[in-house]
Amino acid sequence: MKLRKATRQKAKIRLGLSAVSGGGKTYSALIIAKGLASEWDKIAIIDSENSSADLYAHLGDYNVLPISAPFTPEKYIEAIKECEKAGMEVIIVDSIITSGTAKAVAWRLWKALAVNTRTGLK
């Protein structure tokens, strides 16, 4: 056991928001994202909710990547990789619960994108 000074480390966060329809999940996700990102243009929303991400355009100049059915894990993974390739610092997935197989999609997505939160490496 050894006492040491605290050092800031780069870590990734995965945060799930849950509320009733109209409960403020997208708005709240954007406000949290702005706290995490350096600028609004480094935030992306993967939007499977019929352009609902555009409702908050007045907040800042964030990016929207619309996706449509079928909502497969592969489609979400492809969208996330596209956002990463574009240099996004924060990616909001709105929403993953759009299909009858949401639990399976969420589990396969989690496994595919599993990152060691201590090192930031897969």
Class by alpha and beta content: alpha/beta
Q: What does the overall shape look like? A: globular
Q: How many individual β-strands? A: 3
Main sheet record: 3 strands, parallel
Radius of gyration equals: 16 Å
Low-pLDDT residue intervals, each spanning 5 or more residues: 116-122
How confident is the prediction overall: mean pLDDT? 83
Q: Roughly how many Å apart are the termini?
A: 27 Å
What is the N-to-C succession of helices and strands? HEEHEH
Strand % is: 5-15%
**What percent of the residues sit in helical stretches (DSSP H or I)?**
25-40%
Put simply, the count of helices is 3
Report strand order across the widest sheet: 2-1-3
Question: Care to describe what's here?
Answer:
The protein has 122 residues and is of the alpha/beta class. The protein has a domain at 40-112. Helices cover 30% and strands 11% of the residues. It contains 3 helices and 3 strands, in the order αββαβα. It has helices at 25-36, 73-85, 102-112; strands at residues 43-47, 63-66, 90-94. A 3-stranded parallel sheet has the order 2-1-3, sandwiched between helices. The protein is globular. It starts with 24 loop residues before the first helix and ends in a 10-residue tail after the last helix.
